[in-house]
Design a protein that fits this description.
Transferase(Phosphotransferase), domain 1, 3 domains, five-stranded antiparallel β-sheet, Phosphorylase Kinase, domain 1, alpha+beta, 38% helix, elongated, three-stranded antiparallel β-sheet, Arc Repressor Mutant, subunit A, single chain
């Protein structure tokens, strides 16, 4: 991200224009770029060459007058919007790298936040693509479009879940493929080691799954010890559920199947690591309650 401060206003404008079109184009024709930016026609080729040289955009392999943002280019377009709108004041160090995202510290009024830049391949949505309301053509979209959709979905889920009191990071904003959320100081559940009260952490997870299902009308879709943060504060241990882009509607025909699988992963983890006697079906019954979706 260090290159961001070296970019010109015109280069940022071109990057932002490409980012704004990721759901319409995989590669944007140069004529569209010229119209979108309003830059002098003679300036655009030079700007494009500079962005290609900095690996922020890439030309079409066959038709060289068409371009798309790279992952770094899309991230910078998102970062610029977050800074310009005042969602964050500054971007800090990278603190997490995964197959589906990069995670950075950020700051607002001196307080830490998290910026998560999504990069989503089709395998990341192996269950979501089956959801009728999501669109059967999702698997044909390129990674840029999928990444923006992923960020939109996660931000929407966190907004709803925060309103119903679920233990999730509170969202503060979104821009293209980036989601800004509350910084929760803690450790991933799978790396947490001994817990003073594992039953209490499990209770937090199940309570969030229930609020998601009953109050928000969604199922996480990828719940596991890798998607839970254990926060220790004031002698208490709390479990926060993270990574929500794969949520599906609670009323979908496959929601119970996926919810059972999610809860089975959690039950097996707490049983093996902490010796808790847990029946996944009991957890399922607690989450869905007397809900009449079936």
């Amino acid at each position: 991200m260090k290159i961001y401060s070296n970019l010109s206003r015109e280069e940022i404008l071109v990057l932002r224009s490409l980012a704004s079109l990721v759901k319409l184009y995989e590669h944007v024709p140069i004529e569209v770029i010229k119209r979108r930016t309003g830059l002098p026609e003679t300036h655009v080729p030079k700007i494009l060459r500079s962005l290609v040289g900095n690996r922020l955009i890439a030309p079409h392999k066959v038709y060289g007058n068409m371009y798309r943002p790279t992952f770094t280019g899309l991230n910078i377009a998102s970062l610029h919007g977050l800074l310009r709108r005042g969602v964050i004041d500054a971007l800090g160090d990278r603190i997490g790298v995964g197959k589906e995202s990069l995670v950075y510290l950020a700051y607002k009024n001196g307080e830490p936040l998290i910026v998560k830049f999504h990069r989503i391949g089709i395998k990341s949505f192996r269950h979501v693509v089956r959801v009728r309301s999501y669109g059967e053509g999702f698997e044909r979209l390129w990674w840029g479009a999928r990444s923006v959709i992923s960020a939109e979905r996660e931000h929407r889920a966190l907004e709803i879940l925060s309103r119903v009191g679920a233990r999730v990071p509170r969202p503060f904003g979104r821009e293209y493929n980036a989601v800004v959320m509350e910084y929760i100081e803690g450790i991933d559940l799978y790396r947490a080691g001994d817990l003073e009260n594992p039953s209490a952490v499990l209770e937090d997870i199940i309570d969030t799954a229930r609020k998601a299902y009953i109050d928000a009308g969604i199922v996480h879709g990828d719940l596991s010890p890798f998607n839970v943060i254990v926060s220790r504060s004031g002698g208490a241990e709390n479990g926060y559920v993270i990574d929500w882009p794969q949520w599906i509607k609670a009323g979908d025909r496959v929601s119970h199947e996926i919810l059972r699988r999610d809860l089975r992963y959690i039950a097996e983890f707490f049983s093996k690591k902490y010796g808790l006697k847990i029946d996944p079906e009991d957890l399922f019954a607690r989450v869905v309650g007397s809900d009449g979706r079936r």
